[in-house]
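We close this part of the discussion by returning to an individual protein. Part of our work consisted of pairing the sequence of a single chain with a tokenised description of its backbone. No coordinates are needed to read the tokens, only the vocabulary itself. The amino acid sequence and the backbone structure tokens for this protein are reproduced below:
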Amino acid sequence: MMAWAMRGFTLGVAILAALTSWALSAWLPWPAAVLAALLLAVAIHAAIVALGFALARLLTDRTGPAGPPGWLAAMPRETYLSLRNMYLDIPWRHRWPMRLPARARGAVLLVHGYGCNRGIWRDFDTWLAARGWTVAALDLEPPRAGIDRFGEQVAAEAAALALRAGRGRVTVIAHSMGGLAARAALRGAPDAPIGHVITLGTPHRGTWHARFGRGRCATQMLPDSPWLGALHAAETPAMASRYTCIASHHDNIVCPVDRALLPGASASLVVARVGHMALAHDAAVRAFIEARLEALHAPDMAESDAA
């Protein structure tokens, strides 16, 4: 569903760019008019991303712990990835197949966040597969549904992946709202074959930016929402220990940084100068995830080697 929505959006932007090119051609040669129209579209997108960063910095300065400088440093890569995800990955690159290494070390299920689909994991999926992990992903549908419904989908997909991969459990790696969907999955189906959940930029304590979203899931992500309160109340310390949290001091969507950290999580990593979408592409984050996966699956790999 999101793929078709973004294809329509891309078509709309293309039409506007064509009309802008036509208008500019009265003063510029056609090649220059087309280039100017494209640059204008990119500039508008960059300005929207910059507004997100400005709001995040304001909220952090007013309500969060002081962090290192780096907001401007995080913007260029976040803008690039935002453009790539919106115009390429989500509309056109979401139908990638399950990655099945010849000798898998374990199974990983990737869960996307709000307003996205499994296309955002392109490159990340092949990075994991190259290190020996069976990798699958799902699309959370419909995009504006409640997070509990998404949780049911995560639990069902985890069970299907565990069965197909011949594993007793899988590790979930979830971006943004996807981490809340994973928590909802374990609340609704505590026996689901999910051994551990690694979250990237998940608004565990909500995000002010959810005010700009639409749908039931956006409302549930508001800070101090009744849904988040009920989710926290239902989780025991043992349940919280099944999570690893990754956050950034310069996340342009989930801020301040402590909103992306779950109390009682067994491990956490906080990076700097990394935006919300860039968390899955940062070298330090990937190194941490690689080490974390090896530690979490060490007993399974030992049993496999023994067999």
